[in-house]
## 1
Amino acid sequence: MARIVKCLKLIIHIVILTLLSYFIKRQEPVKIVKKIERYVPDMKHILLWNKIPGIDEEGQKYFTRNRCEHLNCYFTMNRSLFSDLRYFDALVFNAEDVSRSAKGLPKVRSTIQKYIFASNESAGNFPVCNPMYDDFFNWTWTYKLHSSIPFRYITVYNTNNEELGADLNWKYDMKPITPQFMSSLSSKTLAAAVILDKCTTSSKREYFIHNLQGYLSEYNLTVDIFGPCGTRKCGRTSLKPCFYRIRTNYYFYLAFEDSLADDFITRSVLFAYNNNAVPVVLGAAHYNKFLPPNSYLEASRLGEKLTAKLMYEAIQNKTKYYDFFRWRNHYAMKESKILNACTLCRFLNNESWLRHSSSYKTFREWWNPYFESYCGITKYW
Ligand SMILES: *[C@@H]1O[C@H](CO)[C@@H](O)[C@H](O)[C@H]1NC(C)=O
Ligand SMILES: *[C@@H]1O[C@H](CO)[C@@H](O)[C@H](O)[C@H]1NC(C)=O
Ligand SMILES: *[C@@H]1O[C@H](CO)[C@@H](O)[C@H](O)[C@H]1NC(C)=O
Ligand SMILES: *[C@@H]1O[C@H](CO)[C@@H](O)[C@H](O)[C@H]1NC(C)=O
Ligand SMILES: *[C@@H]1O[C@H](CO)[C@@H](O)[C@H](O)[C@H]1NC(C)=O
Ligand SMILES: *[C@@H]1O[C@H](CO)[C@@H](O)[C@H](O)[C@H]1NC(C)=O
């Protein structure tokens, strides 16, 4: 009996190995060939391999309409615009499609063409699993600060309306708010609000909120959930009525991300800042790289119990609450235009960037360091 089982195990092993090697062989390698002569020498032709959020126009329209610094870029989704894919200067791939599959990728590729990975979404929700994508992309265009072409969902300005770049050298000694501003906060009576559209998330924010509600109830405080995941309703077609209620009624707003990924902090924190509420943030970003010090509560670090306690204390002690707004005397924060193609065109016009050959050898890990567990990859051999 034992020998039969052993024999069977061996046969299954061999079958699996043969099947595996068959599949590996079937995946044709991409042919890399020299670049061929171009039609228009100074036009950068960009093939959108997939639909890219925010880019809806073919041709140069995007660049002229947005009055970009460089206008010599041309978008198309027509893969047969030229007789050969190698005529394109760049190909842009969307994270969502890349995450979904590695089917139907280009068969030929020029060595001086740029393959660009673009994402407006979190690596936590769209990990890339197929090994095909390691050593595939030359540039990345994402919210990750270490991307080739990085962007931020939120831009910080100083009081002269000058954009502050990546090196946010925060001022820690900030001026207290004015009595006028204090009185604009006086109508608030409720602890916290949150607008949710996704009810189950990979960040498990729904559990955090549930536990936070438990701790807050000990102080007779509540979290009011607006939208389809809660019992409260505000604007059906626009968020404006919701913002009005946050501004007049709520001390805090829960800016909880739907997924945990480094540098991933979306505009939801502006729902708080723009409406004079203090954001309680949950995510995996280093918040100090994005938001002014002492302007928010970092729930991911504090945990449910301490978050509830600090919220209660700030509601009780107005001095404490007002201190959360000191940043307003020194900074302004606004929503950024993400995946801004003017920037893309600027990079495609930079000779040294173009000539510099680069590729993401371990792309899957760069994009999501936990891709193996997200992708269900376990090591058998
Ligand atoms: C990314 O773009 C899609 C499509 O435009 C949009 O539905 C989604 O909300 C965007 N994601 C973020 C995080 O902005
Ligand atoms: C794509 O470009 C080719 C060559 O210019 C043209 O013949 C074809 O009609 C275009 N296809 C679409 C869908 O626009
Ligand atoms: C909460 O409300 C109950 C009943 O109104 C009251 O007995 C209790 O002292 C309150 N607790 C706090 C922390 O305010
Ligand atoms: C309120 O908070 C401020 C600042 O943290 C502190 O100095 C003050 O002692 C507190 N007041 C009370 C009554 O606890
Ligand atoms: C090209 O990019 C490099 C590195 O970002 C920068 O130092 C340089 O000034 C750029 N060149 C031009 C012409 O913009
Ligand atoms: C792009 O990446 C590919 C794959 O690693 C590489 O062969 C090619 O030389 C790179 N090209 C540029 C222009 O960086």
## 2
Amino acid sequence: MQAIQVISLTLLSVLAANAQVLVAGKCPKPAVKENFDASQYLGKWYEIEKLPTVFQKGQCSTATYSLKSPGVVGVLNRELLANGTINAIVGSAKAKDPSEPAKLEVSFFENSPPGPYWVLSTDYTGHTLVFGCSEYGPVHAEFAWILSREPTMPGETLFELRDILASAGVKVNKLTATNQDLAFCSAMEQ
Ligand SMILES: *[C@@H]1O[C@H](CO)[C@@H](O)[C@H](O)[C@H]1NC(C)=O
């Protein structure tokens, strides 16, 4: 009873903080990119679509990956907030199990639990599809990001990536587009 109350309260506060995609049951376990090669993945990516999260509120979002040390990828996420300020957050990612290199875990703050970052599909030079999921008792929170090397993405690629998510049972109807309009995002170019 008490545990259920705690879970409900946690859920309510997450929901109140808005727009996390919560779904009943266990996390989907989609197939990931085979032989994922982090070295080809480094550099800058533009966010095209994502499932809403409580920790990303801006537009023009980019992710820049660098090699921090062998097996550890540095993460720099930037976004333009509604009030015109740029929000930047740094973290690091590594594969929990080296035999599953596409299943990364990202942490942004010391002592905070790392979040799953699974690369489902990437060609390294055009697109990447990232999925994450965390279970909270009877429900799970789904995360997904569709990223591009350019501020735009061919419609055909976008549809293919949405299809991969949909086949895994991810709530693709909740995906939201990120504004990457060059003029709107010009403040990011520094
Ligand atoms: C802009 O909004 C962010 C987040 O709400 C806040 O932390 C920051 O102080 C604001 N900056 C300005 C200049 O208003």
## 3
Amino acid sequence: MTIPFNKPFIAGKELYYIAQAVTYGNLSGDGYFTEQCSAFLRDTFDTADVLMTPSCTAALEMAAMLCGLTPGDEVIMPSYTFVSTANAFVRAGATPVFVDIRPDTLNLDETLIEDAITDRTRAIVPVHYAGVGCDMERIMSIASTHDLTVCEDAAQAVNARIGDRFLGTIGHLGCYSFHETKNYICGEGGALAINDPQLIERAHILRDKGTNRQTFLRGDIDKYTWVDIGSSYVPSELCCAFLWAQLERLDDISQQREQAYNRYLNALSDLEADNLLQLPHVPIECRSNSHMFYVLVATSETRTSLLQHLTQCGIHSVFHYTPLHSSPAGRRYGSAPQPLPVTDDISARLLRLPLYHDISADEQNRILQEVTSFLRSHSSNRLDSPHTASLQ
Ligand SMILES: *Cc1c(COP(=O)(O)O)cnc(C)c1O
């Protein structure tokens, strides 16, 4: 029996709400369920406005447009992230400037940001990797000193917090994903949190094909027309009906994942004590949403052979990301003014273990047993072996 890497979680009432949407007769965007989802996210996460989108990629594209970028403008972001973080800003004419990550949280290293700022810098895009918050206090203070817009890539961080603030609501803009690999899903979906009220009106226009249709629907004008650039960033009601079934169980879904996450964490602590792997770090002020569970092993060779071993045992684990600064498009469109040693090192040694809502204790035990016996079988798997000393 194989253990998949991810299983899309079904909360229960998805088909019921889709059927309801069908009977309401409004299948395009901005019907009852779209409004339910956006109002719920806006109120629960306590922000000025939330607009549902077809994906986080679409939300990032809207965020890039809202930054008012012109060609040659620079946007600071990690290289250790998914392609959409950079692509959205490249499409808007900007150059991604890649900055290294912290070795503990694997988030943008806030101490390196100021050195990367030039007179062309317009925005910072912190990515909350694995649902663990970046140092937003420091990042917001840098942004305010240099008059930069902050767009949080909170794709993985729905319902995660720093202190009592939800990730995605601290910068000027925040982007969420409801892709089936994330915690809350509707197949493909996303949302844009607009935390700076000055950006709300234009965001509605960009999302609705560059028209002032929303103002028209409110009755403020008597016909609507093309007023700005824009695209079709409105998701179908059917997707929002599906998502509504998931959002209704927001905390309960997090708790299930947290249980599975903690089971991994506790079971692998001995291996960490013996220097056979490094476990994820969550700063004390952060409350993660247990989006993913990863381990860092000694070398890329160890990772390759552990991955092969798990595959042979029917366990599907994965790694990511190819750092954007070393990818073909990243080299063409982006720049990395400084070397990125942490990014290069981490991306070669990180392995993600299966984690989904209803992963069973038996499944986790099987995975844990294989990881443990594999890492304990070779002394070269130790993080402090002479073989790996150069990495420390
Ligand atoms: C998943 C993800 C995205 C893209 O989300 P989509 O909804 O698939 O467009 C962007 N950034 C990060 C960090 C992600 O993990």
